């Protein structure tokens, strides 16, 4: 069922709680793909009711980012949700979420300054604010986030801990195309040639993992190899970062350990892609 108003969603939430139902929640920006579907399936498995939100959150986009051209297809998204047995699709407008006079924000310090946070100022503040609002509206028992956006997952977990929000934040595995490309709504922007260049990202990350598994302990060796593989591609315009970080603090590593995360952000043409792999 498609719900557009906060008031209606809250009423449903209240009723479900009264009935003793557990609520699983999957926040998205829509244009759903198999990555989103995997989160929905996790939620369906663990909870009585699954709520998916579709909201392209304007306050998490920078001035020169892709808010206006972000891909949208509500009809298809609702079809996918129906097929997957989602109980409610929450689809508020920007005015509904940010009415005139809105001026309260949630900001996690520290880990939001690293990786993507260093290049997208204000991005995580927008994310945590909207997710906090959505948690208040949907009141989920569990919320599902993809490890594709690894930093986002860690930032949300930190927010929930720091603010004592009663929700279990569950990270789900990153889903890739058969050829390795991490699924993303933004892949729609890629031309066939750009897509070919973008494949170097996952190829490089797989290679990094292989190096670690063969005994490499020096993070800079991995970073250099990843950089070499990605930068050899003609349509890679800019590598924003390639880092090996601690899986919780997201701080750079001096010596590699199992569980460390290799994270990258790359512009292929005008499309910014992120990817990561756990060692
Ligand atoms: P988005 O619609 O891109 O904001 O993503 C909504 C949720 O889906 C976030 O928790 C993402 O991390 C997750 N997600 C996006 N792409 C993938 C993927 N390839 N594998 C797993 N989860 C994903």
Strand order in the largest sheet: 1-4-3-2-5-6
Order of helices and strands: EHEHEHEHHEHEHHEEE
Number of helices, where a helix is a run of at least 4 consecutive DSSP H or I residues: 8
Sheet with the most strands, sense and barrel status:
6 strands, parallel
Helical amount:
25-40%
Q: What is the gyration radius calculated from CA atoms? A: 19 Å
Strand content: 15-25%
Shape: globular
Class from secondary-structure proportions: alpha/beta
**Count of distinct strands:** 9
Which small-molecule species are bound to the chains here? adenosine monophosphate
Give the low-pLDDT segments.
none
Arithmetic mean pLDDT: 98
Distance between the termini: 40 Å
How would you characterize the overall build of this protein?
This protein is of the alpha/beta class. The strands form two sheets. Strands 1-4-3-2-5-6 form a six-stranded parallel beta sheet, sandwiched between helices. It has a three-stranded antiparallel beta sheet with strand order 7-8-9, with helices on one face. The longest helix is centred in the last third of the chain and has 22 residues. The mean pLDDT is 98. Bound molecules: adenosine monophosphate (AMP). Adenosine monophosphate (AMP) binds next to α2 and β5.
Helix and strand layout, with pairings?
Elements: E1 2-3, H1 6-18, E2 23-28, H2 34-46, E3 49-54, H3 74-83, E4 88-90, H4 94-97, H5 123-138, E5 142-146, H6 150-162, E6 168-172, H7 192-213, H8 219-231, E7 236-245, E8 261-268, E9 271-278
Parallel strand pairs: 1-4, 2-3, 2-5, 3-4, 5-6
Antiparallel strand pairs: 7-8, 8-9
Bound molecules: adenosine monophosphate.
């Amino acid at each position: 069922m498609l719900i557009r108003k906060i008031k209606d969603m809250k009423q449903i939430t209240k009723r479900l709680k009264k009935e003793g139902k557990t609520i699983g929640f999957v926040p998205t920006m829509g244009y759903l793909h198999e990555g989103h579907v995997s989160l929905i399936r996790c939620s369906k498995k663990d909870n009585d009711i699954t709520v998916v939100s579709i909201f392209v959150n304007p306050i998490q986009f920078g001035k020169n980012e892709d808010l206006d051209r972000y891909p949208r297809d509500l009809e298809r998204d609702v079809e996918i949700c129906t097929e997957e047995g989602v109980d409610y699709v929450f689809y508020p407008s920007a005015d509904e979420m940010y009415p005139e006079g809105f001026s309260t924000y949630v900001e996690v310090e520290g880990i939001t300054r690293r990786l993507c946070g260093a290049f997208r100022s204000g991005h995580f503040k927008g994310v945590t604010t909207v997710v906090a609002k959505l948690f208040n509206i949907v009141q989920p028992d569990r919320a599902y986030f993809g490890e594709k956006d690894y930093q986002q997952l860690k930032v949300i977990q930190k927010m929930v801990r720091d603010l004592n929000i009663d929700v279990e934040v569950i990270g789900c595995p990153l889903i890739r195309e058969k050829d390795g490309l991490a699924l993303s709504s933004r892949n729609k922007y890629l031309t066939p040639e750009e897509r070919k260049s973008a494949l170097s990202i996952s190829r490089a990350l797989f290679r990094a993992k292989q190096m670690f598994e063969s005994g490499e302990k020096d993070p800079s060796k991995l970073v250099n190899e990843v950089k070499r593989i990605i930068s050899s591609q003609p349509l890679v315009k800019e590598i924003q970062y390639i880092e090996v970080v601690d899986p919780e603090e997201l701080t750079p590593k001096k010596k590699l350990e199992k569980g460390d995360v290799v994270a990258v952000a790359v512009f292929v043409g005008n499309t910014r892609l992120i990817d990561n792999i756990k060692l």
